[in-house]
Design brief:
This protein is of the alpha/beta class. The protein is built from 17 helices and 18 strands. Strands 3-4-2-5-6-1-7 form a 7-stranded parallel β-sheet, sandwiched between helices. Strands 8-13-12-9-11-10 form a 6-stranded parallel β-sheet, with helices on both faces. Helix 2 runs parallel beside helix 3. It is globular.
């Protein structure tokens, strides 16, 4: 069994952590005990410390799969500043000769932390050298990228289950900042995790006020967004759906006296790095960005995250608004919503290269985003239910609760997270209750909302054979 005092000592002496948070310690202990572990904690809550401390407590190197080169670089630099600076990265930006030399050191057991992009592990030579090092811990960062239900699906992640087996089956630690029950299940399945411990912490961010502004036409929405942004206390982030919108809104904010910079995937890497760095350093008050901005960003004093355009899912939305208020001070998350805006997201889904099944999933997740925008009940309860956590409203920190909305769901025939079976749609997971209705996530067709009265009267759902999802 793991030694709590030993883990705390490593954290303090090697990394300078004064104390371990409950979620950190639970995950570290699980990993050191040799158990596969799935960690769902918001960005900025200390997920990196889990593999850092556990990695040093185990004999053998730690392999960390990370999707962004910039994020790898930041993690390596941070480790090199500590007492244990033996960390290297292997990716396409590293010259071939240096990559070969690094991999030789890895094979010789001279590197403790090795950061790789997932595509690097598709190379047989690289895989052989990593296997020769006999890693004790295999870490998958941003693990939602492996899931078709995840908001940032990456095909290169799909092979990681095979990689784990080819490396001799080291302990697997998967980490993500946001994962609904469906995403969690798929992470476990695709990584072939064995009876994993699931550690969920910190999804309730009570310091972030949640609100939705409803509009019938684009002109009114546009004017209201500019007015609110011009008066908002910086710094802040504004998410938009398109590159053109990012540039346009940024320019209009400058005309209003707001120092804004735009960020999107159409910019060069140098331009993106410059924009991000300037915002992080405080040179700009606001960054107007597409979803390309944010992974690995940790700016504690962000006072607001506004969405000018509706996101594609609750998963995306909650990860993006979670970049506000990480210092624990009050922050705001506002969605400027027009029902017609859903058409743009549906267009993106229809014109992508995904198959018919994938499109159904995307449509289903977008329907849940619509439900969030249009709900008259507690928004915090909505989000926490979506991620499998119970919550009793009112929260006192969303527009609906502040306006006096009351949620009375009545009887609940199944617990949140329970597996149920529908005669036509097959097995599913109970996601949420609201106003006499329940929402179930079915494997075959995505999210479906059912009237509780019909469920009871017609026996639409039966308990599933699989146990409900439970977290530690």
């Amino acid at each position: 069994m793991s030694d709590p005092a030993g883990l705390a000592r490593i954290a303090r002496e090697r990394f300078g952590y004064d104390e371990l948070l409950p979620g950190q310690h639970a995950a570290m202990s699980s990993v050191v005990d040799g158990r596969d572990t799935l960690v769902i904690m918001p960005t900025g809550s200390g997920k990196s410390a889990i593999y850092q401390v556990a990695g040093l407590a185990l004999d053998g190197p730690t392999i960390v799969v990370s999707p962004l080169i910039a994020l790898q670089r930041d993690q390596v630099d941070a480790l090199r500043e500590t007492d244990d600076g033996d960390a290297e990265q292997v990716n396409s930006t590293i010259p071939a000769a240096r990559r070969d030399a690094t991999l030789e050191r890895v094979a010789d057991g001279d590197v403790e932390f090795v950061f790789l992009a997932p595509e690097q592990l598709a190379n047989d030579d690289t895989l052989a050298q990593v296997r020769a090092a006999a890693p004790s811990l295999f870490v998958v960062d941003e693990a939602h990228c492996i899931s078709a239900w995840g908001h940032d699906f990456r095909p290169d992640y799909m092979r990681l289950g095979d990689v784990v087996e080819e490396l001799g089956r080291p302990t697997v630690l998967a980490m993500t900042a946001t994962a609904s029950p469906a995403v969690r299940d798929e992470i476990v399945e695709r990584l072939r995790m064995r009876s994993p411990a699931v550690v969920v912490r910190g999804f309730d961010r009570p310091n972030i006020e949640l609100a939705v502004r409803l509009f019938a036409d684009e002109g009114a929405k546009h004017r209201a967004a500019l007015d609110e942004l011009a008066g908002a206390a910086p710094p802040g982030i504004v998410y938009v759906a398109t590159k053109r919108r990012a540039e346009q809104l940024s320019a209009e904010l400058w005309e209003r006296g707001v120092q804004a910079v735009y960020y999107h995937g159409g910019m060069t890497r140098t331009e993106r790095d410059a924009a991000q760095g300037a915002f992080m350093d405080g040179a700009f008050d606001v960054v107007v960005a597409t979803a390309a901005f944010g992974m690995g960003i940790d700016k504690p004093d962000v006072r607001f995250v506004y969405h000018y355009d509706v996101p594609d899912s609750i998963d995306s939305y909650y990860q993006e608004i979670g970049r506000a208020g990480r210092d624990g001070e009050p922050a705001r998350a506002v969605l400027f919503y027009r029902a017609a805006d859903l058409g743009l997201r549906r267009f993106f889904a229809a014109t992508g290269d995904a198959g018919s099944a994938r499109r159904r999933l995307e449509e289903s997740r977008l329907d849940m985003m619509r439900s969030y925008a249009e709900t008259q009940h507690c928004r915090r309860g909505f989000v926490l239910n979506y991620f499998g956590e119970g919550f009793d409203p009112p929260c006192g920190c969303c527009d609906n609760c502040l306006a006096g909305a009351v949620s009375d769901d009545g009887e609940r025939p199944f617990a949140l997270g329970d597996t149920v079976v529908h005669a036509e749609w097959g097995p599913g997971c109970v996601v949420r209750y609201e106003g006499g209705k329940m929402t179930v996530l079915f494997e075959s067709c995505g999210y479906r909302t059912l009237w509780l009265e019909a469920v009871a009267a017609r026996g639409l759902l039966a308990p599933g054979d699989a146990p409900g999802r439970r977290s530690t």
